Amino acid sequence: MDKPTLRVAILDLYDGAANQGMRCIRELLHDFAENHQVNIEAREFDVRGKDEVADLSYDVYLSTGGPGSPIDSEGSLWEQRYFALMDDIRAHNTAHPEHLKFVFLICHSFQIYCRYYGLGKVSKRKSTSFGVMPVHRSSAGITEPYFRGLDDPLWAVDSRDWQVTQPDMKKIRAMGGEVLCIEKYRPHVRLERCIMAMRFDAAVFGTQFHPEADATGMSYYLQTEEKKSQVIEQHGEEKYYSMLEHLNDADKIVLTHNSIIPNFLEHALEQLQSVSL
Q: Using an 8 Å Cβ cutoff, are 243 and 132 in contact?
């Protein structure tokens, strides 16, 4: 029997900045294809650098993180094209609930999506969040299928200067969504905890953290002078070396890397196969 084919659009929001995210996404797709005996037809779109955007012919849309402000780009050509696509996907999914197009939003994509649809407050953090962090699940997050196999808290790579807080739960629930995760609980710190993951509706999912991140990429970043100094300044030298030591722990980012996006892709594949029957 012929292998099924899953068509994937990778919406690259890195704007030419050096990153590990694209490598991780490519490797996740390669591994998923091998593990599930499926053909992956993937195409990359340079959304911010070349104003490129996918059409509606794809089954899955993976939208990446990226540098810079998620506010200052409002109204730009690339955002107009990007959100025209998102609006088209939402319209398609409303009209064809039996054949959904699935979207996964990572970090910068998550932030601009929340801003565009008015789902929360997007603002700059008081300091950069960078490292391997515990992420706490809400009651909806405990039963979220894409978190299957993960603990509570789950562990994830965080790398951002911006955040989404003050969720508009009325709007979120009207869209069919739920807040799934929040930032580490720190009662002694008088700051709002940001949203770390959200299901926007049956087909659109997003994380403020980087579920694609692996130990190789995180090790590379942690050992650059800039990131080493940043982590030591914020968390101390002991915490820095503890991060390096535990990167390959099977129950931390290795488990997150091997779970969330593969579970998302598996869900999309299951629907594709059911439609094809």
A: yes
Domain ranges of the chain: 5-123+136-150+163-214+253-276
Rounded CA-CA distance 69/173 in Å is 27
- CA dist list (Å): 236 to 102, 226, 231: 40, 14, 7
* Cα separation, 68 vs 162, whole angstroms: 9
Q: Where are the beta strands (DSSP E) in the chain?
A: 5-12, 39-46, 60-63, 102-106, 121-137, 154-165, 178-182, 195-199, 204-207
Domain topology for 5-123+136-150+163-214+253-276: Rossmann fold (3.40.50)
Kindly tell me the burial class for residue 65, based on how many C-beta atoms sit within 10 Å of its own C-beta (0-12, 13-18, 19 or more). buried
CB 45 within 8 A of CB 11: yes
Amino acid identity at 199: R
E strand residue ranges, 67-143: 102-106, 121-137
pTM (predicted TM-score): 0.94
pLDDT along the chain (277 residues), means of 10: 90 96 97 96 98 98 97 97 98 96 98 98 90 91 96 92 94 96 64 88 97 91 85 82 82 94 97 79
pLDDT in the model for residue 201: 97
